[in-house]
Amino acid sequence: MNTRTDTDFTHIEPDLYAQAFALLDPAPEPLAPAAPAAPAPVSFILAAPPVHVTGAVEQTLTDALAFLDNHGWAKGRLIHPEGARCSIGALRAAAGARNDAYRDAGNLLLDEARKQHGKGWEAIPSWNDSHTGAQVRSVWEAAIQRAHHMNI
After folding, report:
1. What is the mean pLDDT of residues 5-33?
2. How many helices (H) and strands (E) does the chain have?
3. Predicted TM-score of the model (pTM)
4. How confident is the model at residue 118 (pLDDT cuts 50, 70, 90)?
5. Is residue 130 scored above 60 in pLDDT?
6. 3-state class of 149 per DSSP?
7. How is residue 98 annotated by DSSP?
8. How far apart are CA 85 and CA 82, in angstroms?
9. Residue 96 CA neighbour count, 13 Å, CB half
10. Which of 70, 79, 85, 102 is the most exposed place for a label (fewest CB within 10 A)?
């Protein structure tokens, strides 16, 4: 085997490559220390809207109205044979149990019914049976808005 170790390369200075690469890819200039970020102005902090978390009463009212939209609204009975319900029946379906959210949602709904249709209403079923679907829906929507603004 004949291995040739003699090369025809010309010897160059070892730092030459380093200098050439430095010219092609110079080191970035050192960055000046970053100034600390200025705090947000108080007016910006105060202008940020609060985060709304849906409360149990608002959720119960919203779910009950969705139930009425999906299954229908009834007068004169809690549950119609075809699945429609009166307002109190929809509240019971949405709450799942007679819990605090159910009671508070019912009280808010009745209070809104009294605001819109007079103070003489003693209970949700009698109010529900004495009004049109549009009137009942108006009370539901107003009660949901009140629950939303009250964060309950």
Report:
1. 59
2. 7, 0
3. 0.66
4. very high
5. yes
6. helix
7. S
8. 9
9. 5
10. 70
CB atoms within 10 A of CB 88: 19
Does the CA dihedral 128-131-133-136 come out positive or negative?
Answer: negative
Residue 69, helix vs strand vs coil: helix
Distance CA 47, CA 82 (A): 50
* pLDDT (average), residues 17-41: 62
The whole-angstrom separation of Cα 55 and Cα 30 is: 54
d(CA 99, CA 112): 20
Residue 125 burial class via C-beta count within 10 angstroms: exposed 0-12, middle 13-18, buried 19 and up: middle
Q: Which amino acid appears at position 71 of this protein?
A: H
Q: Give the integer Cα–Cα distance in Å for 152 and 144.
A: 10
- pLDDT higher than threshold 80 for residue 8: no
Mean pLDDT computed over 58-73:
97
Tell me which residue has tokens 């019914």: 113
Pseudo-torsion of CA 62, 63, 65, 68, nearest 10°?
Answer: 170
Q: Cα separation of 8 and 97, whole Å? A: 95
Q: Are 52 and 147 in contact (CB under 8 A)?
A: no
